[in-house]
Structure formats: C-alpha cells, structure tokens
Amino acid sequence: MSIVGALAEVVRDAGYIAGVEDATVLFKSEGTAYRLESFGDDAGYARLIVGFLLSAGVPITVLLEAANEQNRKTKSVKTVVYELPETRHAAFSVELFFAEPGAWAPVFERTLAALRHASDEYFATVNPGLATDP
Known about the structure:
CATH class: Alpha Beta
Number of strands: 7
Structural class: alpha+beta
Distance between the termini: 31 Å
Order of helices and strands: HEEEEHEEHE
Number of domains: 1
Largest sheet: 7 strands, antiparallel
Number of helices: 3
C-alpha cells in the first residue's frame, strides 16, 4: 500500500470520510476541512494542516503578533499567517514522524484536538468569529 493510502486508512479507521488527491488525504471534522499531506521522497513524514481565510478587518501586524504568541505557547502546532494578492490566510499544522504510516493512529484524535485548540485560541486572541470556512 502507498504512503498516502496508508494515511487515508488511518483517517477512515478513525471514522472520517477521507478522499485522496495526489499525495494528500482530505477529510472534514466538525465541519472543518483538513489536509494530511504526504511526501513521496520521505516515507516517514506527513503534515496535518487546517487553514482559514482571514478578514481584512484586523491589521496584519496584529495577526502576525498573535501567530508568534501562539507558536510560543502551544505544543507541537505551527501557526502561520500569510497574505496573497487578494486574501489573507492562517494555517495551523502538526508535523508527523513515524516508522510506518499507521504508527501514529493512536494519537490521531489528539493531533486533531491540538490543531483545534491552537486555532481556537488564536482566533479568540485576534477577533472572535474572524475565521471563515476555506
């Protein structure tokens, strides 16, 4: 089985409906879309990501300062804020290292909970209700 196939199996075994697009497993939890990215050149690594569009109503400096603070206080979750020509985004991710793709299955729900916690705290800091579904 391919790495992405094994990762998708972990997600499905946890009770989620998972689709595969290229090297990425796509699924939703509590209405929020997640991406589980695998990398063909590294069979022992993947990254779980959740991203949000941000409103233009908060200055970028406030968004970046809140991301820096979130990174300082949150275990294992990276928070990144970036701008594209038309939109702003916040992404929260956890990097996964494993001997085999199914090895992280016992902590899958904990990983999702960590992403939820970090994004909830971030948005509570910058502006409640700032996130929109991607």
